[in-house]
# Entry
Amino acid sequence: MGRLIVVSNRVSVPGNGAPPGGLAVGVLAALRRPEGGIWFGWSGNVSDTPAPDPEVREKDGIRFMTIDLPSVHFNGYYNGFCNSTLWPLHHYFPGAFRYDESEFEAYVAINRHFAEALLKIIQEGDVIWIHDYHLIPLGGLLRQAKVSSPIGFFLHIPYPNIAVLRLLPTYAELVRDLCQYDLVGFQTAEDLDGFYSALEAVFPEGKMRKDQEHVELNGRTIKVGVYPIGVDVDVIARQAEQAIRDDEQVKRLRQGLLERKLLLGVDRLDYSKGLVERFSSYRALLETNPELQGKITFIQIAPLSRTNVAAYVEIRDALERAAGHTNGQFSDTDWTPVRYLNKDFSHQTLSGFLRIANVGVVTPVRDGMNLVAKEFVAAQDPEDPGALVLSKLAGAAYELTGALLINPYDKNAVARALKQALAMPLAERRERHETNLKALRANSIARWHESFVARLVA
Ligand code: F6P
# Structure
């Protein structure tokens, strides 16, 4: 196989700190191959006159190529169509969804900008793997420019059913764009079903044939499949062990707990993560179980994200109110029930935090996969593991059947699950942890990228 070129909006450029989200973890793993690879994407900067050629950096055999994006289109692309249209649509949030034709045009324009820069570096024999909702039209634009390489696409977020997708006036164009790829991958079978529901709406019967692995459209075959993204269990386990030994922030957190049990949530500050609902469930837990007051601490780490999008400003305000409300109602001179931090930590420190947590609280109201749930499992001490409370509406729930699975909208049921997790006997925690660990090993990060790329080039 030739060079692998991975393309995504964000690039984890060495030295710039870890970007948020699971995409970076997966892409880096995919590129750590003996023959090396290229990660191509946005530099994080906008410019009135972006340089025509990418900036190149190299580390451990991976070449990081980044481009500035034209300022004239950036806002419409990123804050507009990507994160005020596609993100809420794909996460089933019609309330936060808006459509603006000029933002769709900006989205297409930025995809063209990506295509033009990529065309300068693509060589015969390259394999191209495009990631996520920012870049759906890119494969088709490369095809129009006669790129003959295999081009794959993986969607990290959910794919909605047509009943929701059709809120978007331009949905059919984006469905046609996905059909330009050789392989289209999704996190779960539900997402693939959503894509099929869209295909049925866009292509009149008779012109399309499909099974669970292929779609045939006007004589062209598109491979499709489910590729649940995973984690590197051994790396996280090692990191977590080292962090509890050596990391000062982990030590400080542990000392500060004063033997209280720790419930921990780690999420980008996003309305899809169900944080407001989570905070009210925690409040219900304290209300209905007064004996727990003063005995437990809930830490929610939520680094800010997409701060120029209105829905994110609103969710931040709502969470500040919710945390203040709970702390005002229950705090004592020597106890704060909720510690809410808009702060980011290194991956290593976070894995240490996850390891010392008694309960992992992962309750998104919708999530493509949720790697925090998987990292929580990987970071546990198998001899004395914590318990995981996980939303049924996260992709990870299809695999982590050893978790206490809840509906995040059901406040009292979540409160009961938190209580059950806090009191879970060691034998049950071990058994559930083993079930989850088996699932992680079966769908490892290596399996994710190896099977996707192998199928793309087959
Ligand atoms: O997983 C979805 C995703 O959009 C990734 O593409 C991205 O790395 C992460 O969420 C963070 O989002 P943003 O790049 O908008 O900060």
Notes: Residues 10, 19-24, 132, 156-157, 305-306 surround 6-O-phosphono-beta-D-fructofuranose (CB under 6 Å).
